[in-house]
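quick one, 100 residues, struct below
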Amino acid sequence: MYIVLYSFDIKPNQEDNFLKAWKALTKLIVKHEGGLGSRLHLEKPLKYIAYAQWPDKETFTNAGNKLPKEADKFRNIMRESCEKFEILNKLKVVEDLLLK
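---
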């Protein structure tokens, strides 16, 4: 398994737009690209950390070409909702004890 950690700094009054777009885009990634889903954590007001899980590094690296056109809409909403977005890290999972 492979995970990617993201950080999102949200603009004031844009949280609802961001959250709806994040959920919709994550569902499309699972359905069309083989992603295993994501968890979104609130670090502090207007600052989110996301943990996206993939079956392996190759699936993550090759993702993006199978998404339907509507994914662009959700990406744009997320982009417009953020002051700052960054990938914090990409990691291979060594042990997984999270309960499903």
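The longest strand covers residues 82-92.
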